[in-house]
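Q: Convert this sequence to structure tokens.
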Amino acid sequence: MDFKDHRKVEQKVHQTLYANLDLLTRRYPTRKEFKAIFRKDMFVKNNKAAFFEVMYYLLEILDPQLVKEKLISWPPYDPKQEPKCRNEILKCINELNSRFENADIPLCQASSLISPGGYRFAKFLLKISELALYEYLCKNTENDILYKLKVAKNSTSVSKNQLNNLRKETNSIERETKMLYSNFKHHYIDLSEQALELHENIVKLDADTRKAKIEYQSMTKEFNLKFPLYPSLESIRRELEKLQKQTQTIQSIYTLLEDCDRLVESLKHSELRFDPDSVQSELQMCVIGKGQIDLAAFFREVSVFIERHLLKLPNFSPAFLNKKREQVQNSILQYNRLSTYFDNQHGQLTNLMEDLHTELR
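A:
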């Protein structure tokens, strides 16, 4: 075997070992330390941590009671305990070879486990992982269809009973496969027809889309020729807002003019006069003979009068309003108390009157 072939075989051994361990982890729980070291290339080179974790995991699967009895120095936290732990592991493996009929684990020396890694060590672990898988399958499947790991001398590798069971399993798998293939073919035909119809619809939709795109490009080109320069949408929006404000202003002016027209119409055929006794002295200067009023002068004087007397009004600050509000509330409370008092007095007087009427009778 040349180097390339040997390299391929070595890679195959590592891959098969990883696959076996991966299958076992789907049925048997692992420690967090095992998950930390578990990877495809963990035994390509020397890896003590992976060796102890994987070996303990496989032995625990095959015979937990044996591990409790023989593997006393586990886990080897102290490097001084590692030689003792390796010797205990070899004793466990020898015990497995004697206990399991199909165990075919090669013998090895404790010194070969000092640097656990490489092709030979991977083959050694592979045998243990195969035994663990075989024992699991024996417990959960028909034992007569499994190929034995260890074949005795002068015996056929496969018995007649195994051949019959294999034929039964093969026929059962073949029937199930035919049924699944028939169902698949039926669904495939239906889905193919649906896919063909969908493809035709997509082709038609694609053609319509292209036609619409061409029409849109033509309309865009025609519009650009007719209107080479046109304002942007944002500028149009600003102009509309400006026009709306101007329209509101014109509307308010128009409303004010209507009010003025109605005021003029009401004053047109009337003569304003005043009573000297009911008008302040400041406004009497607006009189222009025979008690008539100069309306423009009157409004000016009224405005001056209001501004002058406005200073005499109190400052309606929040504090002033709060104070007045408290005074009003106090007055309301006093009013409620007086009202309750008078109601009581009225009730007493009513009762007294009824007693007097009773006595007079």
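The two ends are 146 Å apart (CA to CA).
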